[in-house]
């Protein structure tokens, strides 16, 4: 039995796989969708406000790119690990409400920022708070919905990503334009339009947190016939994970496991540090003064990857069953990394679509909210819902049916991306962007459900945290930056930059072809493999 798991698991109880889903489950899912919509409004609104922030605070584009991508991604990803563990041991409804309160307060605080330092600190706080959402939500949904509908339910929840990201452009533009028109010299408290926009989306989240607190906590694992008692010490594992993943405490954590573990950790720190320095010099030299902030990009990513390495190594010694079913599972890792390449391309397109249309195709800012942002919300919603339903449909016929949908989202999204970023026609760009968004979105529900199906109920929050490591440290942390970096150093501009992001597709293709073969056997042997690793199931 693992050191982390301190409660005795009862015998597996019989369940009816075709039992009707209670209406309360659908109601609760609706509330979680609202939370996720606000999650991505708060995250993505920075894009439409970028030019106003740049003018008012006197910052450069490299800072804005760093603020949107890497700074947020690293803190979101790293804190997602201990918070994922807390979601596996504490009350998930309460955790989500606390996180929602934090990121909403930090979003509102962004509206009072008078300098780059304050804005950076506030956006880091948004990242930490938002790290509570999906580990809690994925685990709750897996206890509210049976396996046959889990991909659909997770897809519905994930639609909030696209709805929030899409309407953030519209909301931001609406607030900024109306505020600046009403108060051309600054409004109450001297706030500019972009500051009012942060407040307008931050404050409602504080009220939504009260609503979330009214949700009923389901019995963990009961819907799968494996009811799991509450952990008597829910914060013990959280603190342990926190110490293992946040530098420099990672050195202390390694030392507690022995001098050999400490030596490996120090070598890893030196290696990641040297790689970050090398990449900083290489990219800074290539861009000269164009992108002076790329050093921060690689420094933050270096810290992030080192922290993840330290945590994964520590997890192996502290909770071998969880390690074996996640990091140690080729099936799990090929699914997670395969979807990470989808996120790599889709995050880049989501961030650079509006600047590209304005810069290269002459689109007006006012029309982007209606013709790019709102259609993107619809495309993402349709894609993730249809993809989730198709994943459940194919799973009933093929044990690797969900992976087929992930593969579809990767491969079939490439042609519309190529069309969007090579056409001279604005209408063609809008149509191609819509199709690319819808197709790539179809993979999310399938990938999320696949990762959840490969672990035990007590590990679902942790599995979600690892899943989002890929989407953030690979997708959000590198994808948008690569497109911008290539744009800065090439004559092709953003067109070349966006097309460069497609270079990860072959890697994703290999990963998902392997997953097609590995997932069926891994999914049918979860309990057996956990027992072999020492789990009492």
Summarize it.
With 537 residues, the protein is mainly α.
Verbal overview:
The protein is mostly helical and 537 residues long. It is globular, with a radius of gyration of 22 Å.
Helix/strand order, N-terminal first: HHHHHHHHHHHHHHHHHHHHHH
Radius of gyration, in angstroms, nearest whole number: 22 Å
Percent of residues in helices comes to over 70%
Query: How much of the sequence is in beta strands?
Result: under 5%
Shape: globular
- What's the total number of strands? 0
Ends apart, CA distance between termini: 9 Å
Protein structure class: mainly alpha
Task: Based on the model shown, name its key terms.
single chain, 537 residues, mainly alpha, 22 helices, 0% strand, disordered N terminus
Give me the secondary-structure topology:
Blueprint: H1 23-57, H2 61-68, H3 70-87, H4 92-110, H5 116-130, H6 133-144, H7 147-182, H8 193-212, H9 234-245, H10 249-256, H11 259-287, H12 294-318, H13 320-325, H14 330-361, H15 365-395, H16 401-411, H17 414-420, H18 426-453, H19 460-489, H20 493-500, H21 505-523, H22 526-532
Helix pairs in contact: 1-5, 1-6, 1-7, 1-8, 2-3, 3-5, 3-9, 3-12, 3-19, 4-5, 4-6, 4-8, 6-7, 6-19, 7-8, 7-15, 7-18, 10-11, 11-12, 14-15, 14-16, 14-18, 14-19, 14-21, 15-16, 15-18, 16-18, 16-21, 17-18, 19-20
